[in-house]
Amino acid sequence: MFCPDPDIKFAEDCLMSDTTAGQVLTTQDGKPLKAALAKALRREKLRALALIAPLLIFVLITFVAPIVDMLFRSVENSIVSETLPNTVVALQDWDQSSGELPDEPVFAALHQDLVVAVEEKTHTRLGSRLNYEQSGTSSLFRKTGRGVRRMDEAAPFKDQFIDVDDDWGDVATWQLLKRYSSPYTAGYFLNSFDAQLTADGIELKPEDERIYMFLFGRTLFLSIVITVSCLLLGYPIAFLLAALPLRTSNLLMILVLLPFWTSLLVRTSAWKVLLQQQGVINDFLVWTGLISDAGRLVMINNQTGTIIAMTHILLPFMILPLYSVMKTISPSYVRAAKSLGANDWTAFWRVYFPQSVPGIGAGAVLVFILSIGYYITPELVGGTSGIFISNRIAYHISSSLNWGLAAALGTLLLVAVLMLFVVYDKIVGIDNVKLG
Amino acid sequence: MKLKTAILAGTALAFAGSAAVAKDMTIVSWGGAYQDSQKKAYAEPYMAEHSDINIIWDESSNEAVAKLRAMNEAGNVTWDLVDVVASDAIRLCDEGLAMEIDPASDLAEAPDGTSAAEDFGDLMVSECFIPQIVYSTTFGYRTDVAEWDGKEPDDVCDVFDLEAFPGKRSLEKRPINNMEWALLCDGVAKEDVYDVLETEEGQERAFAKLDTIKDNVVWWSAGAETPQLLADKEVVIGSTYNGRLFSLIEEQDQPVKMLWDAQVFDLDGWIIPAGLPEDRLAMVKDFVMFATDTQRLADQAKYISYGPARKSSAPLVGQHAELGIDMAPHMPTDPANAKNTFLYNYEWWADYRDDIDAKFQAWLAQ
Q1: Which of A136, A278, A301 sits opposite B351 (nearest CB)?
Q2: Phi–psi pair at A73, nearest 5 degrees
Q3: Backbone dihedral angles phi then psi of residue B252, each to the nearest 5 degrees
Q4: How close B301 comes to chain A (CA, Å)?
Q5: Taking CB atoms and an 8 Å cutoff, what residues of chain A touch B221?
Q6: Overall number of domains in chain B
Q7: Backbone φ and ψ of B136, nearest 5°
């Protein structure tokens, strides 16, 4: 096939160029080549899509959908309007900045709602949820739940409620109820940005309560350090594995994979034994006289411990992608470079290294994303200066049951990872993930 | 062909047969020595009497609260009985995930006729909770520290005294207990501790006191950490659950002693998940009636040094099943050990935990 434009050598370029001569390339049947090619490509794409469709649907249903549902909890707040429907409606007319308590109809609505809530045992659940925002609400609702049954329906409710618990006479309690009346709230996200929703609007939390932004920063920073240290340690190993003959490299590969087959907790605990102040490494250094007994190195229960243990655990994730890319680099390039006069370093840096960059990218992304989400290892060896945001997310899921806040923190983590992924794509470029 | 069909038919029959015979009951506990003591004291005698019931153990008590909430939302509760600490039980009760218990009809009377409610007394801290044992969080210290010149700590405030007792400490990575001890050693009277801790100044005071030892503290989150740290001599004084220290001192013969002063009592017991179907509920209630009676609670003390929650069980506590030593002196409730105790203030911490925990974590991160 010849292209009307004599400067263009390849068929695809020809198709994409303007054929100013007015001639259209055709296949043997007389159909335009461009259309035929597009049709064939589309068929290939559809076939590839059909092959991955079952897996895609499975992942969407069992993975993406539940995660989206979980993340939805970060804004969902229907518990107040569901448990106290009439009170929420009655509070709409109340001016929370007036400094005065709501009127009797609001208290009557509260009584009406609480009678139902106590029947269904949902009042304490509301108390727990509001307790995340203001301490004391949990016992307020518990006490009021017991008192509501004994109230006199004929008498005014305002004084009866204040009798049961003084907090009903505190404007702050009512402001809290009004603030959280709507079915959606930004409270959890504000919390994860170390701010809070108060009666006067959005404010930063007092300094002694700000942890999340700081922890996010520390998590990202330590993850980058771990990724870099994995890279520095993993690159030479992958280089060696790719360069050796197949049998030797397979043997060494087993050694790389062996830690995978040991339990994570066992590996982390082993690091504790090694790195402790009275541990193996310190004992050895004192025995050889390199350090004094009083000057033992503190390598655990701090950031150093986290970095060392996490690097050890995530190293295979860096070595394997690097190895797979390096295996495809033909040794003839380096030989050609040397034959053209390059010394060892130049041949490596200017010929071999650029070809291994996709492997570095893949390995780095994998290690980084894994290390952001880890919480067992930082919990055990990180002490207080080496814990990650994921530890707080785990705490809110398991212990405090503040799933809204955990979902908000998780969403922020997801957004951070996605942003970094976009940056990575711009800089390195995702290895062509074409369909077909 | 004939043999093959025969084998297949036989296997099918065996499965069908066994399915009709054994009923499974899933009990959730903490694993380790504590679960073993429950197995030996409750499950094995029960299964010996009721051969049609098979008890399956799940070691998820650490995650029980979150998992129960998830199960409840999914509408599929697979657990029949869950062992949780009292504060978790209160949270589960508040969230509607645990069933309310009526001591008069669900729990056995004491042998002398006292009602169950009276026998458990103040330890029934929640309507959904059936206490099993009283355990305490307390300190253990090494007896072979050269820098101490032969002195031994006998007061909780010795933990804060770095001059007389130098060395590293290990404290739990949460504010509960640590804040009370800090205020107590800062001069606050025992009855005022919680009132002071409610205020901003009180909390700052507690943090300031903890700041004096912060650089020398290793923070633990699992009960097994302090015994390991003490055994390795990584720390010289450490807090943990008293049963772990008993196992370290008596079973593993480490040079460690107990510091019982200002121990904080806590309760561990059963909750029945809400929403169980009738047949499983009947099965569980029958087991609970057996497993929480006077003799059974005393039996558990043969295997682990936690005090039975019933008053009537205390005189029945005997010797350790394997070591043969008297268990009574090792109980947190023994008068010699219980001269100065705190009881975990459940209501107060249920209110203030979220707030103080955030401050504590921020303080730790500094």
Answers
A1: A136
A2: -65, -15
A3: -110, 0
A4: 28
A5: 379
A6: 2
A7: -135, 155
Cα separation of B243 and B331, whole Å?
9
Query: Mutation test of the interface with chain A: which of B351, B353, B360, B366, choosing the one with the most A Cβ atoms within 10 A?
Result: B351
Longest CA pairwise span in chain B (Å): 86
pTM of the full predicted structure? 0.83
Same structural domain, B262 and B277:
no
Which residue on chain B is closest to A215 by alpha carbon? Answer: B365
Chain A contact probe: residue of B354, B355, B363, B366 with most A CBs at under 10 A: B354
Confirm if A237 and A319 have CB atoms less than 8 A apart: yes
Q: Is B96 on the interface with A (CB under 8 A)?
A: yes
> Is the Cβ pair B93, A124 closer than 8 Å?
yes
Q: Tell me if B261 sits within 8 A of B80, measured CB to CB.
A: no
Domain containing B237: what range? 137-266+339-365
Q: Which member of B221, B353, B365 has the closest CB to residue A214? A: B365
Interface membership of A122 toward B (CB under 8 Å): yes
Residues A74 and A188: beta-carbon distance below 8 Å: yes
CA distance linking residue A394 with residue A17, whole number of Å = 56
| 158-197 in chain B: CB under 8 A from chain A | 173
What are the structure tokens assigned to B56, written together?
A: 């399956």
Take residue A405 and report the two structure tokens written for it. Answer: 């806040």
> DSSP string spanning A226-266?
HHHHHHHHHHHHHHHHHHS-HHHHHHHHHHHHGGGGS-HHH
User: Residues A145, A128: contact at Cβ < 8 Å?
Assistant: no
Q: Pick the residue from chain A with its C-alpha nearest to B67.
A: A398
Helix (H), strand (E), coil (C) string for A1-12: CCCCCCCCCCHH
For residue range B78-102, list pLDDT tens digits in order: 999 999 999 999 989 988 899 999 9
Establish, for the pair of chains A and B, how many residue pairs have beta carbons separated by less than 8 Å.
81
| Residue B125 sits in the same domain as residue B170 | no
Task: Output the domain CATH number for residue B50.
Answer: 3.40.190.10
Six token digits for residue A400: 């405090």
Residues of chain B scoring pLDDT < 70: 1, 5-6, 8-21
pLDDT digits (tens, 9 = 90+) for A257-281: 888 888 988 998 899 889 988 889 9
Beta bridge partners of A332: none
Q: How many angstroms separate the CA of residue A149 from the nearest CA in chain B?
A: 17
Cα dist from A227 to A306, A314, A414, B8, B86, whole Å: 13, 9, 18, 55, 42
Which residues of chain A carry a pLDDT beneath 50?
A: 432-436
Q: Token pair for residue A160?
A: 């009866």
Ordered domains of chain A (ranges, CATH): 11-72 (no CATH), 78-185 (no CATH), 212-427 (1.10.3720.10)
